[in-house]
Amino acid sequence: MDDSVLQSSRNMESSSSTYTDIDGDHPKAIIHIDIDCFYAQVEMVRNPELRGAPLGIQQKNIVVTSNYEARSFGVKKCMLVSDAMKVCPNMKLVNGEDLHNYRTASNKIFAVLQCWKCPVEKLGMDENFIDVTNLVQEKLKSVNTAGLAVSGHTYSEPSMECPCGCHARLRIASQIASEMRKKIFDDLGYTTCAGIAHNKLLAKLICPLHKPNDQTTIYPEHGTSFMSTLSSVRSIPSIGSKTTETLISHKIITVSDLQEAPLEVLKKIFSSDMAVRLKNLGLGEDNTPVKQTGKPQSIGLEDSFKTVSVKSEVEDKFSALLQRLLVLMREDGRIPVSLRVTLRKRDAKRLSSHRESRQAQISPSIFTLNNGLLTVTDAGQQKLMSIVMRLFNKLIDLSKPFHLTLVGLAFTKFQERMTGRSSIVNYFMNDISVQSVLNLQNDCDTSATSMDYSAVSPSSSTTTDLSDAEVEPSPKKPKKVNWIAKRRCLAKEEVASPSKLKVGELRLNSKELEKVSELRLNSRDRSLTPRASPAKDNLSDASDSMKDIEEGACEDCPSYVDKEVFNALPDEMQQELKAMWKNPAGADKPRSSPRKNKAKTNTIMKYFVPQK
Ligand code: DCP
Ligand code: MG
Ligand code: MG
Q: Which SUPFAM superfamilies match (predicted)?
């Protein structure tokens, strides 16, 4: 870091930015994309009649953003509605307090950007960084860079190439940025701006230079001079209000001031690391990586208040939180398998507060797919509420008065699901045991993987269990995993090739099967993720975990049949199996006489064979 400061300082010291300044290496190519007047565009895409005339998005008494037509009248972000209407009396207002559509749009944009298979880091709702370095390297192999022009604007034209080759790379990156913006527009209808640079800082700051619906590339040697055009140190993204205040108190107000401030002076004001970082930022230097954004580890909501000390009130609060949480869950798309309840308790004697949480596993079968959306029936919601209240009862001794100042609910673990309307996917995602039927297609070698489940199974965890063992069944248990592993191996012996799996018997078409296989992989990958913090995972041991699934259980099942698997099968298949068990002379002994009854050779029956 010190080196880069020295390097940049050297650049600063030269009277002008000549090409003798260009040395060093600028290997990265970063794109920053920001959606134009985001909330306003979302509303205009939803309702095209709003296009072409001034539009403001109102939250409370503020216009949080407006389209470019309104901006041309002088409407600015975060203007009071009254002021905005004075400058633009014809502006239509749309209420933007419900963020649902904006979040959905944001997720769709993120998904489009993932198509390039480069790291994408989401910043807020309408911005993304994309590190296209590797993609550019790939393209360099096939693209003739000699005649390749930049796509869009250039901050400042270079008169010679940088020896490290970054100019050519950034030109290619600008072409990629164009493709990305075009795809966002073609697929979703949003116009965007992009900044292209060798680091995140410059890519972000150069992005709005040509607004709306355009893009700008900046070359490394112009970074310092571009930064000096920024009037306030606050314009630098990682400099917050406190640091700004401190800098201002030392008469460092503009970015130029920061550039000129000797590092030694900054080190007297800030820690050494911070001083170096500030100095670098001022000079346009930034080596922070683009970190791939993943889904959040948990989705939660909290409600704080002065006091709640009656159980029925707590229940109301949780009920309201649950409704909102289910909306967030639907937007997220993953199936929760763990629910956490948090309380903040006020201790009147000690005049202090502290938080306590408990969590329990929940059965994925509570959730259903309805028109491709994850939903919970009224009965499912009641079930979730009863889990919440049981956890609450464990956190609070109701025989004594209590004083709460916050309640929180969060889904803390998830199973991946495939999107789409396929009911069979929904059906098969209920439990990994069900997936084991499908694993018959796979190599027996995967049994080793299936055994890995035990390594992350709740009961093998060293966690001190604080949770509610009665609450809900565990979706993954080592006991069952053994069954799966054995079953897979049996399958290999008995089903010589995947084609022998009579897919029709499973009422699956090949597309659905593909989806389910993917689903299984997703689910397995999730399950194999080691717990970051076992102490926080107070998962239930689920000793009576079969309770839910055994409702309407298979009383006629032979003892060797895994009831969870059986209960997860479609009704017709259950009926078929039951009929066969009633007639043991039939196909319930597929291993002993697999070819005698030709019609039944490849039925589901063969997978319900006794273990040796
Ligand atoms: N937003 C908000 N409150 C703010 C600033 C922004 O609610 N103080 C919301 C509304 C914006 C969205 O965030 O539409 C994205 O913020 P931007 O700063 O990117 O602004 P816009 O996308 O609206 O406009 P621009 O075209 O300048 O990017
Ligand atoms: Mg924007
Ligand atoms: Mg933005």
A: DNA/RNA polymerases, Lesion bypass DNA polymerase (Y-family), little finger domain
